[in-house]
């Protein structure tokens, strides 16, 4: 049974392949009211390693087609709306890419070939037979069939928690919230759907310069950024240019001090607080020792504790040289070239973070 399928909550159910192209669910589904489905499906190229999104997804309820999509190409200006088409919360939390087979109210993608009531299923009888048909470009496809049984309404409602939010933000109007310490402004049509909004302030911890402001839902992405302002009364004047707004999901998101407040733009909600970055980036040589000999590559790691690297500059004997980088590994290197002939040299590296904390390291070496 699916007792977890409580009001407003999503559940994930695994599937089993019965035979080639035919799949079934591993669990029974019980639900109540109006529900929507999302599917995780990939189309494997013939080499079995490359994958791509399936070309066509069709959804049927009691043999009636209620949803269809064809994903040939999404126009660039609308790519942000992909966050409406995918289950963004599953993606952020578990890095799993589920495509919704129902349409959020503010989704303007032009990939939908069929939408009956937005692809939603209303459980107004004892059971509904659901079928997915997923096709590739060559019209070969797979199908998934299962039944959704209507749950006992009393059982569902007895599990229904308090609604868990203070007010509803409607997607088609400007929304705002403010008190003495925290302000939030969301432009109209920035949300993909109506959102339950709640606010709670928790006391600050060491090295914080504000309370921790918890504003939900952290898994509701925005089409255009929202604006947040945090009262900076506790921020010392000499640290105003070092201030950072930290978000629980994304870490450092920026922040600019102005007239007693710190303002920042955010791409999603969650928890926010003020701290400062006064620590310069770290530079570590991987293969160059002071007074040593250089090999064909001079390799470094560069890292920053909070606001991130803004810029870096490498010189040999005072002349600029090109550094290459692998940002995933925070690794940087100089391919020794004609700017570094035989003899003795000085290599200098300066790194500046996004709060203008600067570190310079220097090595004397020979070739």
Taking pLDDT < 50 over at least 5 consecutive residues as the criterion, the unreliable ranges are: 1-7, 46-50
Report the principal-axis shape.
Answer: flat
Q: What fraction, in percent, of the residue positions are helical?
A: under 10%
Could you report the average pLDDT, rounded to the nearest whole number? 87
Task: Compute the CA-based radius of gyration.
Answer: 27 Å
Count helical runs. Answer: 3
Which structural class best describes the helix and strand composition? mainly beta
| Number of beta-strand segments | 33
β-strand percent reads 35-45%
If you had to describe this structure to a student in words, what would you say it looks like?
The protein has 367 residues and is mainly β. Helices cover 5% and strands 45% of the residues. It is built from 3 helices and 33 strands. It has helices spanning 82-85, 88-94, 153-159, and strands at 15-19, 22-25, 29-31, 34-35, 38-39, 43-44, 51-52, 56-61, 64-70, 99-100, 112-115, 121-122, 127-135, 141-150, 167-169, 175-178, 182-186, 195-202, 212-216, 226-231, 243-247, 251-254, 256-258, 261-266, 270-276, 282-285, 297-303, 309-316, 319-321, 324-326, 331-335, 344-353, 358-366. β1 (15-19) and β2 form a beta hairpin. The N and C termini lie far apart (71 Å). 22% of the residues are buried.
């Amino acid at each position: 049974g699916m007792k977890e399928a409580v009001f407003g909550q999503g559940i994930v159910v695994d599937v089993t392949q019965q035979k080639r192209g035919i799949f079934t669910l591993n669990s029974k589904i019980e639900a109540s009211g109006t529900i929507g489905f999302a599917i995780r499906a990939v189309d494997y190229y013939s080499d079995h390693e490359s994958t791509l999104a399936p070309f066509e997804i069709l959804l049927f309820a009691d043999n009636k087609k209620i949803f269809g999509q064809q994903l040939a190409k999404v126009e660039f200006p609308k790519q942000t709306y992909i966050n409406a088409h995918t289950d963004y919360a599953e993606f952020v939390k578990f890095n799993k890419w589920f495509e919704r087979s129902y349409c959020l109210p503010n989704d303007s993608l032009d990939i939908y070939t069929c939408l009956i009531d937005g692809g939603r299923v209303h459980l107004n009888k004892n059971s509904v037979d659901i079928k997915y048909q997923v096709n590739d470009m060559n019209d070969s496809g797979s199908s998934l069939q299962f039944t959704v049984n209507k749950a006992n309404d009393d059982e569902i409602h007895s599990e229904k928690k308090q609604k868990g939010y203070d007010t509803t933000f409607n997607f088609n109007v400007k929304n705002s919230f403010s008190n003495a310490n925290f302000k939030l402004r969301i432009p109209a049509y920035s949300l993909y759907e109506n959102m339950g909004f709640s606010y709670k302030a928790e006391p600050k911890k060491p090295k914080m310069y504000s309370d921790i402001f918890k504003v939900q839902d952290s898994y509701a992405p925005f089409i255009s950024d929202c604006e947040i302002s945090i009262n900076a009364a506790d921020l010392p004047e000499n640290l105003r240019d070092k201030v950072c707004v930290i978000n629980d999901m994304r870490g450092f998101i920026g922040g600019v001090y102005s007239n007693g407040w710190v303002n920042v733009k955010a791409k999603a909600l969650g928890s926010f607080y003020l701290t400062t970055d006064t620590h310069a980036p770290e530079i570590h040589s991987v293969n160059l020792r002071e007074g040593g000999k250089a090999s064909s590559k001079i390799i470094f790691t560069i890292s920053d504790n909070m606001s991130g690297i803004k810029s870096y500059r490498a010189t040999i004997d005072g002349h600029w040289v090109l550094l290459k980088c692998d940002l995933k590994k925070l690794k940087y290197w100089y391919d020794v070239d004609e700017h570094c002939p035989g003899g003795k040299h000085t290599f200098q590296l300066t790194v500046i973070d996004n709060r203008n904390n600067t570190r310079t390291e220097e090595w004397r070496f020979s070739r």
